[in-house]
Design goal:
heterodimer; A: mainly alpha; 13 helices; 2 strands; 71% helix; globular; B: mainly alpha; 72% helix; disordered C terminus
Chain lengths: 295, 281
């Protein structure tokens, strides 16, 4: 029976195994090889050693600009988004009438496909007739030309990312519901105010969810593509160019397949390194309940 | 939380309404532009409340702008990718959850580690493979990969299957049932809620997917809505794109997502619990 089991195991997992070999492992090996070649798709690949990496790291200001922009975007949009979603989740957790309506309303923007929200934000961010600058004008503030201004184009993309903050809120809210009521009652007996119980109970108990939001948010932000491609095309003057759109441009517009593969591997190393750092740091600030840590 | 006081309630309502207005206004603006007249579009003089309601936009976009074709393509791609991702992940996860074999632990670790590789690494070689197969300008590059079981989905279903009592299979085994029967008749039906969640994830990803079609589809007749709507905006010669029609197409892109969320949130929530809140992407 054991022997037969082995056969069935491989039959059952064959869809994944074939896909892994053909669409993951094979392409990974191929991609490593390609990153050491000069290949325009039409002529046969020419082996050039580490030249692609050398050019990328020492002689390509646009690549460095796109890395800088990607980090800037991630470093501001993630902490900002996480603080706002924590704030929103705190209020959505109140027992008041109509709260279900608000929960649905706040979540909806995060289900809007990024193509649709990108096209919409081109309008919202328009210099004079855009809704955002019209709203600012009510308060006597003259808004910037957002997408046309190198200083404001990244903040504009960050603003856009904040519209979808509801996705993280849902998980925080679920986390809040899981916190035992007795903890708050005990704290209240000890005379804790609501801000105190937030920082001493709610926040520590939510750190696993916050950690999850941080990791997925970070990986997502480093892979930003459609927003940049549709809303700004990397402009003005590469002020909003990011790593994945730059990779795409090299591969499918300039047909520099080898160079694009090298960018992909540098991106992979950046993502891996940062994920590792965040995971390592989690021991310092993520609070796991006893016995739940090995789940 | 205990019942809040009146002051607390008032502060909460003020906060919620303010944030609600901020988050809802882009939706209203989308609808407002969708109903704007062509004259307004040309002058780019959109107002929050449309100056005139041009309902004929809905008619125009179907007759002049291929919306029907884009929608049909999106539906075909989405239906097949849902079938592919649910079916393949379900079968594979049974193997990993219920059959002990040499190498199964190792392969499961390999499966988990593939989740860490960003799609961009395999994007270029996959393009070259599909180009060799002559699959450019077909739906195959968008549909076929979903039949090879996504690692995340396998992991999610496996977690769920692990929580089903083993005694169930043992009883069936004694009755002479083999693995195919056990999978199909016993385990699979018990995983319907998580399969529904995966169908929803697959729908959300594929309905709005932009990069895949952008890489593989050039022919407007083959484009799904997410790509077609963007094509509408790229009119040449310094002409103003028909923004009112673009926003209608964006509405068509958005509304199914909203409906699926409203009807499917129960399953997504369940997936979160069984996956240890690793569900929502």
């Amino acid at each position: 029976m054991r022997k037969k089991d082995g056969k069935w195991f491989y039959i059952f997992i064959s869809p994944w195994l074939i896909g892994f070999l053909g669409l993951t492992l094979g392409p990974i090996l191929f991609s490593i090889y390609m990153s050491f070649t000069n290949w325009d798709l039409f002529q046969s690949p020419e082996f050039i050693g580490i030249d692609n990496y050398k050019t990328l790291l020492t002689d390509d200001p646009i690549f460095w600009k796109s890395v800088g922009n990607t980090f800037f975007y991630a470093l501001i949009s993630i902490p900002l988004g996480m603080s706002i979603s924590l704030w929103i989740a705190y209020y959505l957790n109140k027992k008041i009438k109509g709260i279900t309506f608000f929960r649905i309303l706040f979540y909806l923007p995060s289900v809007v496909p990024v193509v649709a929200s990108s096209l919409l934000f081109i309008h919202l961010l328009a210099p004079t007739e855009g809704l955002i600058n019209q709203a600012l004008a009510i308060f006597g503030i003259q808004g910037p030309a957002w997408l046309l201004d190198p200083n404001w184009v990244k903040p504009a993309l960050i603003l856009m990312s904040l519209w979808g903050v509801g996705g993280g809120v849902v998980l925080l809210l679920a986390g809040m519901k899981g916190i035992p009521q007795e903890l708050y009652e005990a704290a209240a007996i000890d005379g804790a105010k609501s801000t105190q119980s937030f920082f001493h109970i709610t926040f520590p108990m939510l750190t696993p969810v916050i950690f999850f939001n941080l990791v997925t948010g970070m990986i997502g932000a480093l892979q930003t593509f459609a927003q940049v491609f549709i809303v700004t095309a990397g402009g003005p003057d590469n002020a909003s160019q990011m790593v994945v759109p730059y990779l795409f441009q090299n591969a499918f517009q300039f047909y520099k397949m080898g160079y694009a593969s090298a960018i992909a591997w540098v991106l992979f190393i950046i993502i891996m390194a940062l994920t590792l750092v965040v995971f390592r740091s989690s021991a310092l600030w993520v609070h796991y309940e006893e016995g739940k840590a090995n789940e | 939380m205990s019942n809040p006081s009146t002051v607390e309630k008032t502060i909460s309502y003020i906060f919620l309404i303010l944030v609600g207005v901020l988050l809802a206004s882009p939706f209203l603006y989308m609808i407002s532009i969708a109903l704007a007249s062509d004259a307004t579009t040309v002058k780019s003089a959109f107002t929050f409340v449309p100056m005139e309601f041009q309902w004929s936009n809905f008619y125009t976009i179907f007759t002049n702008n291929n919306l029907g074709t884009y929608l049909k393509n999106s539906v075909i791609i989405t239906v097949f990718t849902i079938i592919g991702s649910v079916l393949s992940a379900s079968i594979v996860s049974y193997g990993f959850a219920r059959i002990k074999a040499k190498g199964s632990r190792f392969l499961f670790i390999v499966l988990l580690s593939t989740m860490m590789i960003p799609g961009e690494v395999t994007m270029v070689p996959q393009f070259i493979i599909f180009r060799h197969l002559d699959w450019i300008n077909t739906f195959y590059p968008l549909i076929v990969p979903s039949f090879f079981a996504g690692a995340f989905n396998v992991f999610l279903i496996r977690q769920f299957v692990m929580s089903i009592p083993k005694s169930l299979d043992e009883a069936a085994m004694i009755d002479g049932m083999g693995h195919p029967g056990m999978y199909w008749k016993i385990i699979m039906p018990l995983t319907y809620p998580i399969l529904a969640a995966i169908a929803i994830f697959s729908f959300s990803y594929n309905w709005g997917n932009f990069m895949g079609p952008l890489i593989y589809i050039n022919d407007p007749e083959k484009m799904p809505l997410a790509l077609g709507v963007q094509l509408l905006t790229t009119v040449g010669g310094g002409q103003m794109p028909p923004w009112n029609l673009v926003m209608i197409a964006s509405l068509f892109l958005t509304i199914p997502m909203v409906l699926v969320y409203l009807f499917g949130q129960r399953y997504v929530y369940e997936a979160n619990i069984s996956g240890g809140s690793s569900g929502i992407k």
